[in-house]
């Protein structure tokens, strides 16, 4: 993706490269390819910051997230780094278990909220998964709106293999983004691998492309397509779909009505209708 | 479907033809084929009224909903009519945005509650989708219990293309009636078309037939099949499945127990058991 | 499965045979093959007791549930026995309908809570379905974590055919364990049969094997695989996935953090990490 | 209240007199004083219609509800009429209990939704209770926003005394509008009387006045006071308080933000601020 | 209360004396007065069993719960016994904290479910509190329907004083049974004493009587009063009020309609109406 | 309160003075007395930061919040400053209403989350209210755990008087912290003043003291009392009470069990029990 324009507002981040393949689209790359893009604490804190910034950046209308290098979207948590930082193995040993629990709870809260920033980002996020996609890779992908995979992607909800239940979102979100609970239990309780074809068949990803390059190209096309629509319509749609997941239909309908009470007052509606009639492409103001 | 018997109780509706292909089955047709069955306000108000009446009509045990003509189930909202009526583009211009918002909110509430009448109808509703199925077509179909498609059906959650988030139910219900959240986000955020095969693969429809005629025939068969069962059992099943969608398993089990505390006192239970033993078809009283 | 070791602690049950195909795995067989494993009240009460015991039995880390004999997982409720016991047809006739309703409600509550014991069991439960799987078979299977089928399995949500809405859990759980609501409504409202291939395509089961023997072998392998992992990780994963189903993502993330605040203090984490480094199989203490 | 202006738009109702004591205020009187304002089906249907109309009537900004005559706000359900109509004692006797249950359920639904119209009315409703206030009186009052009592008011949640649990809203709402669950259980389980002082002490009413005349005068003053404020602010406040009752704080905060995103665009905000500065009374446009 | 009739069906319990002060009323006494009625594990298990039995005992229509002796309703957990049993201080020391946590969680679950049996009991439960009412005393009382106090009652949510957050129900229920959150936080965070007058003012109890004897007499009167009403009405009222606490008004109204669909078919309704007309006391059959 | 020790870690804040009246207690003063402690955006952002820091500061075990000066806790929003900053009156005028709505929604979200930091603070917060307590004063106080008032406190939910519904938390929290919904509606819909006696009677505050000085002294005593207890017990109690408010009893009991599974492993439990026996004051480690 050589031609991508760097986005200066995101130049300060160390672990993520953010460029723009086309107007209104941001491409965020996890950039630690020599370590299979494995995450240490500094990285997930930065990930949260990047997506919080994207959420309020009115120049950005759609986001693509991928991993740098050929081998991995991300191999997940860098367990060695985590052990050294003490965030997993608990640090200061002489605390009583209740006090240690408070530390762990706060750490997990912080970690979760960095990853949830992807879901809370007001713009659609398309996640491109290739190569190794383990553990945290699934937590991250579950927060994206659309998931695409390269054919070489190899997934696993790996956490039980290191003696823990996944706690950064996979167990909370995966059952709500695919159809088969039996399959979810199978992959989460066994930590077994699954490939792109299985991910597609189960609805975890919605398209499989030949390789990372093709998957990225598809993601850029999709993001460009979304970014040309009315941002009032697109961002409202994301918000309302996320709200629906966690509420009754009755509640969701009500919230939708209140949301659209303002959103329907956008000029985009007339512009879109008029453009449709005139068979030309409308352009919409920033949101 | 020439042989269908008209249902006199529904003769007064202007935009919907309601007939009976067989005992206990009502067939409701959206009847504005020259405009691709596109909806204006009068139509959706009538749709609500038709289904409210069907819900309490003890002669009806199952309903089939389809669109008249060869070209469309429905092309969705008649945007031109809506603009003239002011329900979309907001009418009286000199209100402040808060007052306009109140108008929009009330209009959306009214509109939603007309369409939700399909879901609230106590009888099972089978929706037959053919040809063009855009925007409101999806909102309507999401309220039905079973969705069948003709092979020529072409679907789109079209709303973002006219600058708005869908607000009549698609965003509230679609994520709960198919398995893949990635696919839902894809079709809702892009407004792209999808065909019958994709709709089947994703579980949006549960069967695809060769053409509208075949799909209708299948729907009539299915509806007839349902209408011959105990209406206490069938209508209870619909209610309990709809309740389950919006409640925890614990809540749903409790509600089920309370519901069946009365329902199990039906004579249908003995009649069904006896008929099973005697290998004859039972008949059940109206509900 | 001749080589299975009997589990003495479960020898007292009359209607279920519980053996151990391998360390940490319990195999529970519904044992009334001459009646197609159909359930009477004594059986479902015992089923609840068996799973409550398994839940707290620290020697057991995974459970396989199947039906004895070649013909049926279970044909469901033994309607004849139920009629004699009065639990379905209501017993004492001279009660007024409100008093009868109280009886029915309490019976359904008791029955539900026996079957829910499978879901509440803290260990993963793999259900192997073969031959006839009707009515209660689906209620039971919906409580398991993973569902496997033999190719000859024939399923039906049969209750409407005996004049009642299913009330032991199918209507509460089935919509939440498969993706397509249209399919769920179809099979629940018609009581029609579906086979193993359809069950797999819809995500109700996650694997189909050639015959019961192969399905059991696969289940034992899967159970053995799970039972060798850290029980803190595996049982936590089951709990968190079940919790997620009935809560918002926000709630689920919070609960996960609190759960793992204690669970991450397990020695299993270090043991698993170390074993991974040393490329040997770890062993974990009982939980 | 002789000087009240009749409101012609409400002249068609038979059982309710609607007048206007001051600009923007509607006074609805239950008008069957010779029968202690006891309700038959025609009355509660009309009550629903009156409040649905008030909700959308932009000339009305606050509503006072009271009972005509000196003796009763309302003695509740006219049991004799209900028995004749069959809505309580069940009508057609030869239905089986399941079918009778469906009738009862639908009747209760309809009845509830007529009474809930008071709660759903977008304008604040002040209920003035005097004399006899039994059964349905409490259901109705629980739907109002503010409850005032005359000193002679005598209340009872009377339903258990006629062999039934209250089903038109008291049991759903009363526990949420007063503080002491022990008191709620006491009055609901015993059907005992309580007087105005007790009602005040428990927070059921928020003020007690000397007699009906004084209570009405106070209600008119309060209603006039509310109707002079910005209707955007007042109606938003009612909506948000009702929403809060049934949602988590998190949900409620979010809904509030979305609601006010439009409401804060009202001109009323500037007008109110400016008027405050200029120490004059602002006037606000209809909503 | 010397004249009370023993209830033979409850004679087998060791720690609770169950008698009947009048027809249909059961009086359960916590019977360990020499230890201030402090609870050890055997006691709370028995308490659960007593209330489960009362719930299904059709001879019982209302229950009074009190503590034997002059000095205490109950001083709460017998901390010394608990420490010996290991249920609080954790028993087997060489488990890792995750495994210990599983033990604690299961113990708390069991303990909670014994106490919750009071709330789940289908009959109204009136709790009479006198003398010392500490810790578990509050958990227990929160499960009752009506709380009465003797003037000498001294209450405290004592748990923080022994280094723990109350976990048997007080923190879950107390905020929902009184009005002032500030007061709840005050007494729960400080563990300070409060007396009967304060308990009454805050709505925790609904009546204060001169001494234990007077409070018991009042409770028996109240229980007798309730037990003479239709049990269909009374038990339905309890159920619906408990349901309302944990559900939205919308949900609660719906549940109420379904509940009463069966309950309104009771003969008690006619009997009650007729008795009212004839100004005689009706009698109602068992439920 | 001259003797209070400054807390250096909080010296960098401009608008809040944070001192320590006794070990483990932090006293936060809103410090803009010349403007009646009215808030501009910089202040509420800082308030959020202060409480986020207190939440994780293990040297602090209880917090007292009050307003500097004699005249006001806070007069609420500094409307003039807000108008200049554009956060209320909407800033950039040429945006369409949908885009303006997005700005308002984000501003309200940010504002809410700063104030909610008080509620989310893991330590108990005691709010001392004196003099003028308008608008935002109520939003802030609703987030505290315990509310005390000086006799001169004058409260109002003032927002409707400036043409808006309160959106920073009052409408979401007030109905859940006092008992009488009628009173809540009264004060929120009219914006009328209420005094300390009324606040106490309604349960909004739990104690009224003679003047600010006495109220502060009481708050310091209360905070010191709480800070001497086990922080594991105190902070767990706060968390569990806040959780209970927004969940069913069933959910809350379960969460409590999981929470205490770790918390009961604290050494504080033994220390507290032992100290009780030895009748000496225990000391507890930081959390």
UniProtKB/TrEMBL annotation, chains A, B, C, D, E, F:
Name of the protein in its database record: Uncharacterized protein
Family: Belongs to the enoyl-CoA hydratase/isomerase family.
SUPFAM superfamilies: ClpP/crotonase (SSF52096)
Highest taxon listed in the record's lineage: Eukaryota
Keywords: Fatty acid metabolism, Isomerase, Lipid metabolism
Entry-linked InterPro entries: ClpP/crotonase-like_dom_sf (IPR029045), Ech1-like (IPR045002), Enoyl-CoA_hydra/iso (IPR001753), Enoyl-CoA_hydra_C (IPR014748)
Pathway the protein contributes to: Lipid metabolism; fatty acid beta-oxidation
Key word Isomerase present: yes
Gene3D superfamilies reported for this sequence: 2-enoyl-CoA Hydratase, Chain A, domain 1 (3.90.226.10), Lyase 2-enoyl-coa Hydratase, Chain A, domain 2 (1.10.12.10)
Keyword Isomerase among UniProt keywords: yes
Pfam hit, one: ECH_1
